[in-house]
Specification:
By secondary structure, the chain is mainly beta. It has two domains: about 1-55, no CATH class; about 65-308, no CATH class. The chain contains one helix and 14 strands, in the order αββββββββββββββ. The strands form four sheets. The chain has a five-stranded antiparallel sheet, with no helix packed on it. Strands 7-6-5-14-11 form a five-stranded antiparallel sheet, with no helix packed on it. Strands 1-2 form a two-stranded antiparallel sheet. The longest helix is centred in the first third of the chain and has 27 residues, at about 1-30.
Amino acid sequence: MQSKKLLFSGVISLVAILLFGAHSLMANSSLLATNNGDGAVNNVAADADMNEPDGDNNDLNDGDVDGVVRVLVIAGGGGGGAGSNGGGGGAGGYQQNDAITVAAQAYIITVGAGGAAGLSGNNSLFGSLLTSTGGGGGGANNIGGSNGGSGGGPGAGINGLVKGLGIVGQGFNSGEGDPSAGGAGGGGASNIGESGGGGTGNGGPGTASTISGSSLFRGGGGGGRNSNNASKGVGGIGGGGSAPNGNGTANTGGGGAGGSTGGNGGSGVVIISYPTGSITATGGTITTSGGNTIHTFTSSGTFTVTSL
């Protein structure tokens, strides 16, 4: 009889312990167990703050957090005027934006080619977010310069009314043609080209940027040609071709120089830079400098942001 009482008392005590333990677990536990259906059990915090309306436990993983990049877009330079007094080609449009917001997607990159003698350069684009216009072609004798990112220089015999006009924010106008001799210099990314004749006909200077890791000038205008004296317009700093017939430097958007055949404009370039680790992306030639990752496109391609 005594043993039955002891057994019954032990059972009662065990039940009490189990009930107390279950109550404590429910009251104090901050984790709930959920089963994926494949035998794996995940612990999900049972905090009321986790019950967001969208069911997402981490706003940083929403996929809607965008990245910011620096972008330089330079179009192809204009070709120099084909003539003994041809004007220099205008530099390709030059634009740098240091705060472009990108999403996790692909962006088509277009790098504009330089124009042949007397022809305007081609546009360069960073997707639909930034477009630079090709440089204006230089004029031959008695022919005006073309408008463009920077304006192409008119040939001799043309007054200032038909100088090539640049686009505000991308480049500058050409110089003025001389009524008798001397083609004008093409406009550059940072200033106008010089006038022909009494002037030197030098191309307008380009602009320096450190986006690629070091300071480099790009977007120089092409020099104009003067057949009446030894004056040969010098290309603007940043890839402009020097007379006679000098080509613009590739991937600077420099304008071609005036001359008997006219120089070709230099091709453009697209450069994208961002702090290393801030985003992950592919495309172009990838380098690093000063804590930044740099994508350089010397020809058309695709810049793909794979993660933010």
